[in-house]
Specification:
Layout: H1 7-19, H2 25-46, H3 53-65, E1 72-74, H4 81-85, E2 92-94, E3 104-107, E4 111-116, E5 122-123, E6 130-132, H5 159-174, E7 177-181, H6 190-202, E8 208-212, H7 216-227, E9 232-235, H8 238-241, H9 246-254
Parallel strand pairs: 1-3, 2-3, 7-8, 8-9
Antiparallel strand pairs: 4-5, 4-6
Helix pairs in contact: 1-2, 5-6
Length: 257
């Protein structure tokens, strides 16, 4: 029955009904009630997916072969498989949420199941009501309400989330290479697309891009057409990608047209 239901469409519908001025008081109340039920269930669902031998092996090689302390990792996922798969000796922190000097920054623009929706955001093993941003173009709509925090799912719901997006944009402006693992640039996420476009507009030159996705060819072509990106390296499997080396990747991309 739910095979044809698009999760992003559900988020879009709920966030529209919760924020649109034309929505009746009763419908807005119902939309917010359903949203709260959805967000409270997300930690229960995603917490079932934990690290295992495969994920630990893959991310250990990713850190060893590619990641340096000055790098920043951006994850659009709500789950914490990546963080929990990192070696115990790896120093990392959530940028915009907490601080840890001389460690790898992890940015999660869409929130995380282990972030408690509070002010300030608390990182905890049992978030209860997690802080989650709807993965739709509506996330950037600003509220005219006196208390925009009453409407979750939007960037202005939390100043910390707005800071995370601001930090992500800053990192993208400075990066030599943008590596996208899994993220497929869904049409609904117009806000991220607009940020990428503004980043490219202020840079002296377009960054090289790496796509790690089973549909890497199609995604690469989409980026080429929409953003005029030329230096694109494609990989179809993350396990194959992490066997590569940072130096070889940079050398290969420097020769790209």
């Amino acid at each position: 029955m739910f095979g044809d239901v698009d999760v992003e469409e559900v988020f879009t519908f709920l966030s529209e009904r919760a924020r649109a001025p034309s929505t009746s008081v009763q419908l807005r109340k119902e939309a917010l009630r359903i949203w709260a039920a959805l967000i409270s269930e997300l930690p229960n669902v995603f917490s079932r997916f934990g690290p295992n031998r495969d994920t630990r092996g893959v991310y250990r090689k990713l850190l060893k072969n590619f990641v340096r302390a000055r790098d920043t990792i951006v994850s659009f996922n709500y789950d914490t498989v990546f963080e929990r798969s990192l070696p115990a000796t790896c120093r990392w922190h959530y940028e915009g949420i907490d601080k840890q000097p001389n460690s790898i920054g992890v940015l999660k623009p869409h929130g995380s199941i282990n972030w408690r929706d509070s002010d300030p955001i608390k990182v905890t093993d049992s978030a209860g009501i997690a802080l989650v941003v709807a993965p739709t173009h509506l996330k950037f709509v600003q509220s005219d309400a006196e208390r925009p925090s009453d409407t979750p799912g939007y960037l202005d719901h939390s100043p910390h989330i707005k800071r995370v997006w601001s930090l992500m944009e800053r990192e993208m402006r400075q990066a030599k290479v943008l590596v996208f693992i899994g993220y497929s640039f869904p049409p609904a996420d117009l806000y991220f697309s607009s940020i990428l476009r503004s980043v490219l507009a202020v840079r002296d030159g377009a960054p090289a891009v790496v796509i790690v996705n089973p549909e890497a060819v199609a995604i690469g072509e989409r980026l080429r057409q929409r953003f005029a990106l030329e230096r694109i390296d494609r990989h179809f499997d993350v396990r194959t990608f992490v066997e590569d080396a940072r130096s070889k990747l940079l050398k290969r991309l420097s020769r790209s047209p």
